[in-house]
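Batch manifest, entry 17 of 40.
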Amino acid sequence: MTTPTTPTVPIRVLLADDETMIRAAVRMILSHADGIEVVGEAADGRQAVAEAASHRPDVVLLDIYMPVHGGLAAVTPLLALDPAPRVLMLTTFGTDDNVLTALRDGAAGFLLKDEGPEELIRAVRAAAAGDSVLSPQVTGTVVARMLSGAHQETAPAPTDERIARLTGREREVLKLIGEGLSNQEIAGRLHITIGTVKTHVAAIFAKTDTSSRVQAAVLAHRTGLVH
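Output type: structure tokens
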């Protein structure tokens, strides 16, 4: 007698974008991905919050710029839901200051709208698994913006004691985070498993008093791990 297998619970996704064609394209991509289910759509931030409260998605793909009620204003109400979804911002411009505001408000990361289908699917899965998601193409620019102007804080010395707490391998992982690599890419670069990468990332967050990939990337740049 064959023992029945337990079906994998799909990742529930809500799409929020005012452009119908963008929503249709994203829905088509995700609908063909194993283990992902699109449970709802919204055309503005207020509707996104209402739909999320109704459908309880695991991940919300949220466009920053939408009429009536933009995505930026929806981040905090979305994260106030119980359970709170993971919020990924969709943007055309990765250098936009609103991206930084969204990350500070608790968004799990951001994606450029012109990224490929595989990057979109990978980002949804990573967000659902609790990882931060940064578009590698613009991570350096985002970090630079955070290190300058109104976002600049007093920079620690290159011998920051938080870096001294890390093992050699953890420093390697932190450097690659600063370069914008995903967990999967770090695993490939260092020839280790993704599970091992996640363990290192968790240790880095704990030892350096950071709580997100963005904060860790900023630390990597400030302390000279990334030039």
